[in-house]
Write a structure and sequence with these properties.
Elements (H helix, E strand, L loop, with lengths): L1 E2 L5 E2 L26 E13 L2 E14 L2 E8 L3 E8 L2 E7 L5 E11 L2 E11 L12 E3 L4 E10 L14 E3 L17 E8 L1
Parallel strand pairs: 3-11
Antiparallel strand pairs: 1-2, 3-4, 4-9, 5-8, 5-10, 6-9, 7-8, 11-13, 12-13
């Protein structure tokens, strides 16, 4: 194939003296860059210990369209991020804000199907007895968000849930504990919830 001055391709071939020739071609279709649309399912285990609440969350992202190269998660300013794990993480950092901080996770490659992120964090508590709000980390900019929360303790700490909003309490056996959590459910004063 050769290109002439008009930019059109010219194809030449030597044909046998007998037989037929079939020629077909297809146009090359470029992929259209589309805006990123994702949904996320979150599994969180919050374990109350003397002086702290350890929060372990798994974020299962589904890419509906576009390419996932960076994740942003809104988090309460009173949360400290201890560890962030997942495939091909290039860098992560917490950007301070007025009402909320943003956990920014940059990936070293693009994902077009799904991605799993694990975040370990903690909230420091005052001396017991104390009253506190359970801080959460929420994916930012997702089309749909749902998941499960397990809240409890394995120590001699009495927990009383005063008020909940946006969640439904479910049976403890309904919490879909996956091997990826790498953390057992609390064994005392366990409360499990589903949200969507």
């Amino acid at each position: 194939a050769e290109n002439d001055l008009s930019g059109k391709g010219t194809f030449t071939a030597i044909l046998p003296p007998e037989g037929g020739v079939d020629i077909s071609w297809y146009r090359h279709i470029d992929k259209i860059e589309s805006e990123l649309v994702t949904s996320a399912q979150v599994y969180t285990i919050a374990k109350v210990l003397p002086g702290t609440v350890k929060i372990n969350s798994i974020f299962n992202y589904q890419v509906i369209q576009g390419k996932l190269t960076q994740l942003q998660l809104k988090m309460s300013p009173d949360l400290n991020v201890l560890n962030v794990t997942g495939l091909n993480i290039q860098d992560w950092q917490v950007e301070k804000g007025v009402k909320a901080n943003i956990l920014v996770v940059k990936l070293s490659r693009e994902y077009e199907d799904k991605y799993v992120l694990r975040v370990e964090s903690e909230k420091i508590l005052k001396e017991f007895p104390c009253k506190f709000n359970l801080s959460r980390i929420n994916p930012d900019g997702v089309l749909r968000l749902d998941g499960y929360l397990a809240f409890g303790t394995s120590k001699a700490v009495k927990l009383i849930v005063d008020r909940i909003s946006g969640m439904n309490q479910v049976d403890n056996q309904a919490f879909p504990l996956s091997r990826a959590m790498k953390q057992p459910l609390p064994t005392r004063s366990l409360f499990t919830y589903q949200f969507s």
